[in-house]
Predict the structure.
Amino acid sequence: HVQLVESGGGSVHTGGSLRLSCASSGAPYSSKCVGWFRQVLGKEREGVARIWAGGIGTPIYADSVKGRFIISQDNAKNMVYLQLNSLQPEDTAMYYCAAEVGYCTSFDPDRYRYWGQGTQVTVS
């Protein structure tokens, strides 16, 4: 069973930055795909970035965040981060860390079994 805990959300002005953190435990770190998703109340959950934990493969970004958000990891700490730069009001959402074991090919939320509780990002 994989457990995920997000932190680092908050309120920033337009153009500001935040770094979200996702602490992962449970399954072997290198076998996990970790994705960051966001959701606005009343809208579908949107995948923004994903990465193979352990450093295999290239990080993948949604077009809406490419060039502004950076996903990274600290293997020794079982942590995955999402650096949010040049934030815009439309980036306001609840951000979730999600994980799946064995493959890392999709932003479909239904393909991720494990989810954190979310951390709110508000840009104004």
Q: What stands out?
A: The radius of gyration is 13 Å. The mean pLDDT is 92. The longest strand covers residues 93-101.
